[in-house]
Amino acid sequence: MYGKAFAPEYQGELGAALGVNSSYEEVLATASRAHADAGTPLERARAALAVAEANRRLGRVTEAGDAWRESYRSARTAGDPGAMAWALWSGGTLARQCGTLPLARRLLTHAVALAEGSGDRLAHGYSLAGLAETGRIQGDYAAVAELHEQLLEQGRAHGEARHMVWAMSGIAQMHRNTGGYDKALELFEESARIAAEADDFRGRAWSLRGVADVLSVQGETDRALALLSEAEAICRTMDLASALAYNHKMRANVFYRAGRYESARETYTLSLAEFREMQEPRGEALSRLGLVKSRARLGRDEQETLAELAALEKDFVRIGLRHARDMVIAFRAELTAREAAETPAPRCDATTPRYPAVPARS
User: Where are the residues of the annotated region Disordered (predicted)?
Assistant: First the structure.
């Protein structure tokens, strides 16, 4: 069994004032006031952590970066390794969001060590979860699949719905990316149900996005779009800027799979602008790939398409997104195979044309 979802990143007095479904503008305002009124280094660390998380979720990456570093410095001054771990967890999560995955791994690894030494079970679990998600995004499934399962069992053992939803969604995503659509759908639907029962609206929004993805792959376009609309309403209510942009990118994916290439192009353009505004290169690169594919379907010059695919492949290698790079390679192969199929072969009865002899020079 599990209880209602809660947000352990809001600590001290903030934990009583804020909940998992508080809008991030509300979190930012409350945490900023708490930071201004903080009387001790530990109070400053906790308030700065909440400021960092609110700004990160709102897509304000510069402000989030400043805040998590301040949280870490204040926690170090307070001599509290648990608070230091939470600050590094926030910094590692921000680094992953910004596409700097090696930095994310380093920060989260340090967070795990600090949390383990401090005895803060939740900080330790969240930091391990961050490491697992970073590896999953990179496509390193063999390294993190077991860790996802362990975290799911921990969530069940302690009745932590939010953690269960996160781990279950991650496992579902790995099944989806490796072709296990039935298992992925089962897990996404269960995580959406658990999130709803635990009043974890954010977790439900992400889970619904996963359900919509699998339904779309299976050809259920209308159901997928309806679920994405439900998730979008949650994102807007909670000011989830990053989740909203990923929702729009998934909507574009659904349009693309349904052969609605004009709608896909328009929606990829929207998500691309959103990701660029919040400086999120992973989402930006994925939106660019969708845009390239949509334009190709609408008749764009093939050489221009291939040139942009080459640039995208370099970006995916730089960021460390293996699954996305595989998608580039697959689409390039599809394009070149189609070009070969459309190029007429020489007729077997064709003869070499004869031209008049060139007169010899006199």
Answer: 341-362
Which class does domain 240-338 fall in?
mainly alpha
Q: What pLDDT score was predicted for residue 354?
A: 38
CATH no. for 9-138: 1.25.40.10
250, with CB counted inside 10 A (0-12, 13-18, 19+), is buried
- CA-CA distance, 295 to 285, in Å (whole number)? 15
Distance CA 140, CA 192 (A): 25
Residue 338 has a CB neighbour count (10 Å cut-off) of 12
d(Cα 125, Cα 160) in Å, to the nearest integer?
A: 11
Q: pLDDT value at position 7?
A: 87
Output the pLDDT for position 26. Answer: 94
CA distances from 61 to 18, 27, 93, 150, 192 (A): 22, 16, 11, 31, 28
CA 236 → CA 41, 73, 202, 311, distances in Å?
A: 34, 33, 11, 33
Report d(CA 189, CA 142) in Å as an integer: 24
Q: Please tell me the predicted confidence (pLDDT) of residue 83.
A: 97
3-class SS string, 232-248: HHHHHHCCCHHHHHHHH
Which residue in this structure is represented by tokens 């570093």? 69
Class of domain 139-239 as given by CATH: mainly alpha
Q: Indicate if the alpha-carbon torsion angle 131, 136, 139, 145 is positive or negative.
A: positive
Write out the two tokens for 175. Answer: 């099944």
**Are the CB atoms for 44 and 32 separated by under 8 Å?**
no
Same fold, 9-138 and 240-338: yes
How much of the chain is helix, strand and coil, in % rounded to 5? 80, 0, 20
Q: Which residues of the chain have pLDDT under 50?
A: 348-362
Domain ranges (residues) in the chain: 9-138, 139-239, 240-338
Q: Note the pLDDT of residue 4.
A: 82
